[in-house]
């Protein structure tokens, strides 16, 4: 499903541990690391798509998490020219995403990357809240900045006190130190 502007509707998931660290996963058969994300079906709301993608990519179910916040409206990124599939119509030029911040309620041993025949990820780890900004592919970085900045206040409200210091200023773009 591609919208009239060429963007594929999609959801992004920031899964947070109670200590404020976030779930960061390596894509199977690739070197890139990212947050879980995935396309929406035409009959799904963003929230329905998020729970489906959460289960498909992490093995976690709705009862394993608490939804803390979501971004208002769509955040968009364009795909680099080399990734465009010019033989497909309509042409998808990028993705538009609603991002969700989830808190893990279950034990982390509930995370299972192998619940499907072609897993999306082959490895995962907990990382500091802003860590993904320096490690995601460049064309997704600005969306990650906007999603993390928008969701950081909700993360701060529930994260352990020690983790709050790591969230940095919310009024400016996080540094790339």
Can you offer a commentary on this structure?
The structure is a single chain. The protein has 177 residues and is of the alpha+beta class. It has a single domain (7-167), classed as Nucleoside Triphosphate Pyrophosphohydrolase (Alpha-Beta Complex). Helices cover 20% and strands 28% of the residues. It has 3 helices and 8 strands, in the order ββββαββββαα. The chain has helices at 46-58, 141-158, 161-164; strands at 7-16, 22-27, 33-34, 37-39, 65-70, 75-78, 94-104, 121-127. Strands 1, 4, 5, 6 and 7 form a 5-stranded mixed β-sheet that branches. It has a 3-stranded antiparallel β-sheet with strand order 3-2-8, with no helix packed on it. β2 (22-27) and β3 (33-34) form a beta hairpin. The longest helix is centred in the C-terminal third of the chain and has 18 residues, at 141-158. The termini are far apart.
Per DSSP E runs of 2 or more residues, the count of β-strands stands at 8
Work out the radius of gyration. Answer: 16 Å
Q: Return the CATH class.
A: Alpha Beta
Kindly report how far apart the N and C termini lie: 38 Å
Cα shape: globular
What number of structural domains do the residues give?
Answer: 1
Question: Looking at this structure, what is the CATH superfamily?
Answer: Nucleoside Triphosphate Pyrophosphohydrolase
Low-pLDDT runs of 5+ residues are 169-177
């Amino acid at each position: 499903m591609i919208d009239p502007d060429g963007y594929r509707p999609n959801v992004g998931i920031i899964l947070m541990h109670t200590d404020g660290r976030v779930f960061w996963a390596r894509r199977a058969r690739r070197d890139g690391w990212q947050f879980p994300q995935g396309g929406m079906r035409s009959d799904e709301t963003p929230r329905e798509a998020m729970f489906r993608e959460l289960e498909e990519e992490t093995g976690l179910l709705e009862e394993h998490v608490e939804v803390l916040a979501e971004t208002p409206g769509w955040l968009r990124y364009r795909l680099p020219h080399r990734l465009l599939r010019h033989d497909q119509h309509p042409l998808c030029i990028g993705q538009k995403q609603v991002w969700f911040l989830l808190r893990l309620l279950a034990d982390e041993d509930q995370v299972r990357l192998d619940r499907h025949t072609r897993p999306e990820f082959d490895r995962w780890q907990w990382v500091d809240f802003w860590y993904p900004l320096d490690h995601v592919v460049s064309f997704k970085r600005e969306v990650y900045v906007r999603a993390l900045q928008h969701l950081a206040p909700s993360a701060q409200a529930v994260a352990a006190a020690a983790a709050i210091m790591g969230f940095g200023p919310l009024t400016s773009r996080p540094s790339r130190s």
